Amino acid sequence: MFDPQTMMIAMIALVGFAMAGVLYALFYNRIDTETRRGRRMAEFTAPVAVRVTGGKKVDAAVRRRNVQDTLREMEQKQKNKAARSTNPGLRLRLQQAGLKMSVPKFVVVSAVSGVVGFVLALSLQAPLLLAAGIGFVSMLGLPRFVVDRRRKTRQKAFIEELPNAVEVIVRGVKAGLPLNDCLRMIAAEAKEPVRTEFRAIVEALQLGIPIDEAVGRLYERMPLAEANFFAIVIAIQSKAGGNLSEALGNLAKVLRERKKMRAKIRAMSAEAKAGAGIIGSMPIIVGVLVYLTSPDYISLLWTDPRGQVVLGCSVLVMAMGVLVMRKMINFDF
Questions:
Q1: What one-character DSSP code corresponds to residue 3?
Q2: Regions of the chain with pLDDT less than 70
Q3: Residue 165 class from Cβ within 10 Å (0-12 exposed, 13-18 middle, 19+ buried)?
Q4: How far is CA 71 from CA 60, 67, 76, 239, 251, in A?
């Protein structure tokens, strides 16, 4: 048998290993990100041969340093933009949804929606407390739901059209057109909402804003990875130089591959979504059928206090199950 002192040392060691494992699991993503970032920086700073362009020698170390500085600066900007995009303000949400509406006007519309919902509930002889709840939801929930729905629809349309716009820029650059003229072409001829977003870029350029900053604002209005990729490519090319047509051509290829992958994931998850919809709707369908065939049998659920408790617990458990299934079948891509 071990003595108490040895057992105490062993317990302390085990607790220490357990805490180290928990901390490593919590900070694994950050450590892995830092490792990949250091590897990318090492690739950029690795010695390469001096290249010759048009008979003039170009110092590759200067270009690597410019790229490194640009990436560091953009990384800091991306952190700030990511913090804003996770919880954007109401004004930015309206702008992302493509609604030309000020915040005070939206507040007035929300108030009117709440009053209409409250009056409509009272006209249907609903209890006062229930009518107040419906009015509250109509005032705070319904307008924001419409804005978020329109925002998501607009972002999907932007993702669908952006690869075509990038390819038009690639062809224009290869034909010898300046980048600004290519952007004006997209702002005049592309489909919505790409046309509106590129028109905002062109207007910013006309005001004298640098092209990297003007394109960088696209990510604020469209918080999508595809818009971020486009802004990064333009920013690196404007500060460090390089073959813009080749970089944008690779970007267009990446965007189309992401589009194909998104469609593939949507097709693979369609069966799971259909099954979840059937499972989630079965209790409601069965309850309606039982009420139509035996109303006295099922009416105990809302007439008897014990039945009300059972009904409330059932609704809560069902809602939790629906949320779990929704989390399982929705993929972030």
A1: -
A2: 1-88, 241, 331-333
A3: buried
A4: 16, 6, 9, 10, 17
